[in-house]
Amino acid sequence: MTTIELSLLLVKNSAEMSVWSIFLFLIHSLHGHQSCPRRCDCPPGNGVVWCNWRNLMVIPFDIPHDTHVLYLDSNWIVHISSGAFHGLKLLHELHLADNLIESISPAAFHGLGNALRLLDLSGNKLQKIDAAPFVMLTWVKLELYNNPWHCDCSLQELMKALSLGARKAEDIVCATATWKEYVGKTLSHLVSTGVNFCVTQQKNTDFAMLLTMFVWFGVVITYVIYYIRRNQAESRRHLEYLKSLPVPNSSLLGPETLP
After folding, report:
1. At what angle do helices 197-244 and 153-161 cross, to 10 degrees?
2. CA–CA dist 255, 259 (Å, integer)
3. CB count, 10 Å around CB of 190?
4. Going along 31-102, which residue ranges are E strands?
5. Using CA atoms, how far apart are residues 96 and 123, in angstroms rounded to an integer?
6. Which residues on adjacent β-strands are paired with residue 141?
7. 90 neighbors 66 (Cβ within 8 angstroms)
8. Which of 127, 152, 168, 241 gets the most CB atoms within 10 Å of its CB?
9. What angle do CA 88, 90, 95 make, to 5 degrees?
10. What's the confidence (pLDDT) of residue 256?
11. Three-state SS for 142?
12. Tens-digit pLDDT profile for the chain (259 aa)?
């Protein structure tokens, strides 16, 4: 092989290696992009994903499946949609504190594994939440403080369904409540003093039903009285009209009409 041919072969091999290197680099870059959300940081090897303080309005869909700790706190998230964390079987901690979360879909936490131990929802805008999103997370430590809770029967039933202890119930302060005197007090204090929001709600429902029935009965009676009086007035007008008719003159009557 001549020197020229050898040089051409080396150049060709170098070009192929360069193309292959560029291809591997692109694949690696694409894989890295897919494995970490665009606005987040995913340091390699430790399973922690940092998405806090990123002005996020929705939860990223491309969170790595090997994530152990996920920080989504201090963003602008308002709602947690169904399956938002699907596939994160290894997740131990989920931090959603200091967002604007007002509602949580019943299937929001479907797809999470049994590894989850902490769910931080503190410092949000939660007033009411349904038990459905949490029925499969009864072993998880919930952080629920600093939310504008509305204390009523549904919240009391939720606390019972989640089997929250007295310490957790102390974190729930009534920003609003069924009765004004309960505002500013903790749910645990109210329940410990014998307050039962479900009984109160039932009494309110019974009173509202009784009041509705009373109003309806009053409307019916009023209509009946009005109908009777209107008929009486019509009867009087008809009688007066008959009385106002002229009486026939007997002298104008024929002999055949005389008795």
Report:
1. 150
2. 8
3. 21
4. 48-50, 69-71, 79-80, 93-95
5. 9
6. 118
7. yes
8. 152
9. 70
10. 54
11. strand
12. 555 554 444 445 544 444 444 443 444 444 444 489 999 999 998 999 999 999 999 999 999 999 999 999 999 999 999 999 999 999 999 999 999 999 999 999 998 989 999 999 999 999 998 888 888 887 888 899 999 999 988 888 887 777 665 556 678 899 999 888 999 998 888 888 888 888 854 444 544 565 667 677 778 888 778 778 777 777 777 777 666 767 666 555 555 554 5
Query: Which residue(s) pair with 95 in the sheet?
Result: 71, 120
Give the number of residues written for the chain: 259
In the three-class reduction of DSSP (H, G, I as helix; E, B as strand; rest coil), residue 119 is classed as strand
Taken in order 98, 75, 63, 85, the sign of the CA dihedral is positive
Ramachandran bin of 243, using left for φ above 0, alpha for ψ from -120 to 50, beta for the remaining angles: alpha
Phi and psi, residue 138, nearest 5°: -65, -20
Q: Write down the residue that tokens 């209107």 correspond to.
A: 230
How many Cβ atoms sit within 10 Å of the Cβ of residue 183? 14
Classify residue 93 as left (phi > 0), alpha (psi -120 to 50) or beta. beta
Q: How many CB atoms lie within 10 A of CB 68?
A: 15
DSSP 50: E
Which residues, other chains included, contact 58 with Cβ-Cβ below 8 Å and sequence gap of 6+?
77, 81
Q: Which amino acid is at 1?
A: M
Copy the structure tokens of residue 195: 């307050």
